[in-house]
């Protein structure tokens, strides 16, 4: 089948495979299409399960057109939320937040959570889902606008602007004065290392992303030094690749759609137009310019009827 994409994503995790380093995905060779989530409309089909006009989500990458045998495509029939949500708050970023809290952190009601890069889709979703469990949530972000949105819209209890605060360690200690049960980290090793001394006994560290380390050569990535706390405080640190939870995606999406419909889960999107602007949009993920899920509109978006 032939699919014309009308929305595509740029993702910070792609930085490592562009650098020649294998991660959960293989290194991209020169001439390959850069990976990314897409939403498009079927323009031609010889597949029994997909008809012309169907809207589908997939992973065609940075391209306006895609050819598929149907594997990896999901027909989007739920009209309760905009199409873009399916590669944002209901896509890999939102699902990473959901399963990072559920499976990795094993979050309990009324715990204390610290979220880094909190204004991104992963961080903002994690914080809001934790608030629905009665948790005390502190977020770290990089601008006053982001901090304001997290506190006044998403309901975070405390938000720290790491670019303007005088002493970040002191600010974290004051915001989480009783210690931290769960660190949901999207930044990297330096941030993890500075938070470890604030963790409670039995604390859990979710390694979700490493946006501060993706651009560094392997030999330049800082290490973690405060390792004695893993013994004294019985800490646990674990990363995740959300595709491991594929069988539970439908359950998670339905739960999050319910929260969106009730106004309990908010999201932001930062949309650029045109496939030629995808590199610029990608770069903005590492400069702090991006605010919300970074998407690129590749073509006309079909009318979405209930």
What's the short story on this structure?
With 306 residues, the chain is α/β, with parallel strands linked by helices. 25% of the residues lie in helices and 22% in strands.
Average pLDDT reading: 93
Cα-atom radius of gyration = 20 Å
Q: Kindly report the name of the CATH homologous superfamily of the largest domain.
A: NAD(P)-binding Rossmann-like Domain
What is the CATH topology classification name of the largest domain?
A: Rossmann fold
- By DSSP (H or I, 4+ residues per run), the number of helices equals 9
- What structural class is derived from the secondary structure elements? alpha/beta
Which stretches are poorly predicted, pLDDT < 50 over at least 5 residues? Answer: none
- In total, the number of strands is 13
Question: What's the CATH C level of the largest domain?
Answer: Alpha Beta
Q: What proportion of the residues is helical, as a percent range?
A: 25-40%
Q: What share of residues are in beta strands?
A: 15-25%
Through-space gap between termini: 25 Å
H-E order: EHEEEEHEHEHEHEHEHEHEHE
Pfam families: ADH_N_2 (PF16884), ADH_zinc_N (PF00107)
InterPro entries: ADH-like_C (IPR013149), ADH_N_2 (IPR041694), ER (IPR020843), GroES-like_sf (IPR011032), MDR_fam (IPR045010), NAD(P)-bd_dom_sf (IPR036291)
GO molecular function, one term: oxidoreductase activity, acting on the CH-CH group of donors, NAD or NADP as acceptor
Keywords: Oxidoreductase
């Amino acid at each position: 089948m032939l699919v014309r994409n009308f929305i595509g994503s740029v993702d910070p995790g792609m930085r490592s495979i562009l650098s020649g380093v294998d991660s959960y995905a293989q290194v991209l060779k020169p001439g390959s299409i850069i990976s990314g989530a897409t939403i498009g409309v079927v323009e031609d089909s010889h597949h029994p399960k997909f008809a012309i006009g169907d809207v589908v989500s997939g992973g065609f990458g940075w391209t306006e057109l895609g050819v598929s045998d149907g594997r990896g495509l999901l027909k989007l029939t739920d009209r309760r939320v905009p199409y873009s949500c399916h590669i944002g708050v209901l896509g890999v970023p939102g699902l990473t937040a959901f399963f990072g809290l559920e499976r990795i952190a094993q979050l309990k009601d009324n715990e204390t959570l610290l979220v880094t890069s909190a204004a991104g889709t992963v961080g903002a979703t994690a914080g809001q889902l934790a608030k629905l469990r009665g948790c005390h949530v502190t977020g770290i972000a990089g601008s006053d606008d982001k901090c304001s949105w997290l506190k006044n819209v998403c309901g975070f209890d405390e938000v720290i602007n790491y670019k303007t605060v005088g002493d970040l360690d002191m600010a974290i200690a004051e915001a989480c004065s009783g210690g931290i049960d769960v660190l949901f980290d999207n930044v990297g090793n330096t941030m993890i290392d500075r938070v470890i001394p604030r963790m409670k006994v039995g604390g859990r560290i979710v390694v979700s992303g490493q946006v501060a380390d993706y651009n560094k050569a392997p030999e330049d990535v800082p290490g973690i030094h405060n390792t004695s706390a893993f013994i004294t405080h019985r800490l646990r640190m674990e990363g995740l690749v959300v595709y491991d939870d594929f069988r539970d995606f439908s359950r998670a999406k339905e739960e999050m759609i319910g929260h969106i419909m009730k106004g309990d889960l908010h999201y932001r999107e930062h949309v650029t137009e045109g496939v030629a602007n995808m590199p610029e949009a990608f770069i903005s993920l590492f400069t702090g310019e991006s605010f919300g899920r970074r998407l690129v509109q590749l073509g006309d978006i079909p009318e979405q009827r209930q």
